Amino acid sequence: MRQLSLFEVSDEPQDPQLDSTRREHGRPTPGERPDLCSPPGLSEADSPSQLRIVTDGGYPQSRVTANAEGDPSDPQAIVRPSGRETLLNGTDFGATPSPDLLSIAQSLAHALENGLYLGTSSWSFPGWSGLIYGQPTAKTNLSRHGLTAYAQHPLLRSVGVDSGFYAPLDSARLARWAAQVPAGFRFLVKAPALITDRFRRAERGRPAGPNPSFLDAERALDIAVGPHLEGLGDKAGVLLLQFPPVGRDGCAQPRRFAESLYRFLQRLPKGPVYAVELRDRPLLTPDLAAALHHGGAVPSLALHPRLPPLLEQLSLFDANRADGPLVVRWLLRRNRRYDEARERYAPFDRLDEPDPTTRQDLAVAVAAALGEQRPVFVIANNKAEGSAPLTLIELARKLAAVFGHSA
Asked: What is the CATH number of the domain that holds 347?
């Protein structure tokens, strides 16, 4: 195998100041091929920003909308609101799983107990009442107290913590979250953009000069790796290194990027699962795959309009596949921009645009990895199909079918 040559070259409260950095520049309009190296804006298809709050207490009879091809996604795969005693700060947040959902969870019990970690990007969405939570509840309340109820869902054994991208998370906060979930739960936490962004950021996320902390291993140990291990302990799952778009000049030197990343990874301590996620198609090269393999990291396969489809990404990394977990984040529908999807899908209580092709490809990839006894993390975003919990329920139904069960 070729070696790299090294040469020099939500407890997630809203923060209006950070919200402005969450808008990715250069996303394609519907039906338009994305610019592969658009101006380097912060790349976030998965940030819970300015969501509508549900206050009417109504629960749709069906939360799944058939797509144009008539995908008959089963509307029974919902969680009905009830009075299950999940008392958090004096409020009942829990929702009772439907018989259909319990059947799916039972059919996947072995996988769920042996390395399958399904989760959503954050947990504090009021629109999930009846899916995760038992009654309409303010976002701030869910942010502080909702994680315990979230972790009682029969399919959810992980959660993506996006807020770490915008500001470092200290070990005390991470420890508070870890105390709210059961022993088998695992967190996927983003490292700060302070480490993974080439640029310092001005208002609205515009580049404002080079970032002196970019790929600084000592800084990463101090503000990301150390708190991750100390705060989460055995519940530390994946430390995600997400790299925003690097701009055209960065895309023009994919080998240089891969070698810089390799040197950075080599300086990090062994132990955590490091996953690397990009937003620039030209950087997805065999050099990158080799850098991750020899650097002790795994790819985070982002299902996002800026990147190739899942099967193409899998084929790139297969030759240099590490022994670590399969990490997939299903972020944004290929024909949507982030803001467009957010406006269309809010309050995220139904599958507005099911994507059965991606679901099938993902189910096959997950089943194959589990068959090789590799752990699997799948984090779904509301902007993938309209509702992250329902996306995972339908994925679980497909997995049950792949495993030969009838859910």
From this structure: 3.20.20.410
